[in-house]
Amino acid sequence: MTRIAIRKGPYVDSTTSFETRVPDYVDRVEHALDARLPAAATTPASLHEAMRYAILGGGKRVRPLLCYATGEALGIAPDELDDAACAVEMIHGYSLVHDDLPAMDDDALRRGRPTVHKAYGTATAILVGDALQTRAFGVLADGKNASASRIGMVRTLAEATGSLGMAGGQTMDLEAESRQIGLQQLEELNRLKTGCLIRAAILLACDALPGLDAGVRHRLGNFADSIGLAFQIRDDLLDVEGDESLTGKTGGADAAHGKSTWPGLLGIDAARQRADTAYTNAMHALQPLGTSADPLRWMAEYIVQRNH
């Protein structure tokens, strides 16, 4: 098979596993988010305190990690991706705050502590989501390299989060409650609601590298689509069989809301097999990138095996 040549950079020690660098990346994005969010004491303090509560001090940081892992694969220095990693995590955080609202999933627990609307009230939670969304785009626009690549990042994130992406998927999810939908509809719902933002996390790193070979971007997009599906199937399985002390979320919430899920439609064993197939497809997409894509291979394995 023909190997696709990609840029190399002296930014990581390729002889060690990406797993050994994950704690440093998580710490890195935590500090970067802290620096890019308004200080808690800044007026209006109640809003800024709640924004920081929603974003800091918890979460797997899967999307920022995917951004940095893609950067390693493409030879991009981490400091070139900090804004992108923060922006995608702020969008993810906003989506969780709104998903948890009484008008949506009405969840009381997120990351092992009260959801934002439980801690700060529904009105503040709505404003937190609104403010995090706009701050995400502000972070991209305010970056030191206000170039065409930044415009590409803004476009990538906007497409992933609007009515043809995450927001559209949430609409489909609400409309599907308490009624049975087919597997094809469920896959499309998952692609929009969950997969688009995971895809964006990877493509934002691609946007940071002007002139990236179109074939590389296409393969990374295919990888993202497959691993986004695997991520959602694993989430559905954890809602059924996960340990609440590890997941940090109320178990059985999907069934309580009458949601169509992969284990609900296929059964647990077949849902696991479908996740394995998605993982296999993701690995196939990375083959021409060679060992440079090993950080993404590690992320894919983590996504399908995680327990929280």
Please describe what this structure looks like.
The protein is mainly alpha-helical. It has one domain (18-305): Orthogonal Bundle (Farnesyl Diphosphate Synthase). It contains 15 helices and 2 strands. It has helices spanning 22-36, 45-55, 62-74, 82-99, 116-120, 122-141, 148-161, 166-175, 183-207, 214-241, 244-247, 253-256, 262-266, 268-286, 294-305, and strands at residues 109-110, 113-114. It has a two-stranded antiparallel sheet with strand order 1-2. Strand 1 (109-110) and strand 2 (113-114) form a beta hairpin. Helix 8 runs antiparallel to helix 9 (183-207). The longest helix is centred in the C-terminal third of the chain and has 28 residues, at 214-241. It is globular, with a radius of gyration of 19 Å. The two termini are 36 Å apart. The model is unreliable at 1-11 (pLDDT under 50).
Number of domains: 1
What is the average per-residue confidence, as pLDDT, rounded to a whole number? Answer: 90
Distance between the termini: 36 Å
Structure annotation, total helices:
15
The CATH homologous superfamily is called: Farnesyl Diphosphate Synthase
Named at the architecture level, the CATH assignment is Orthogonal Bundle
Helix content: 55-70%
State the CATH class.
Answer: Mainly Alpha
Counting DSSP E segments of at least 2 residues, the number of strands comes to: 2
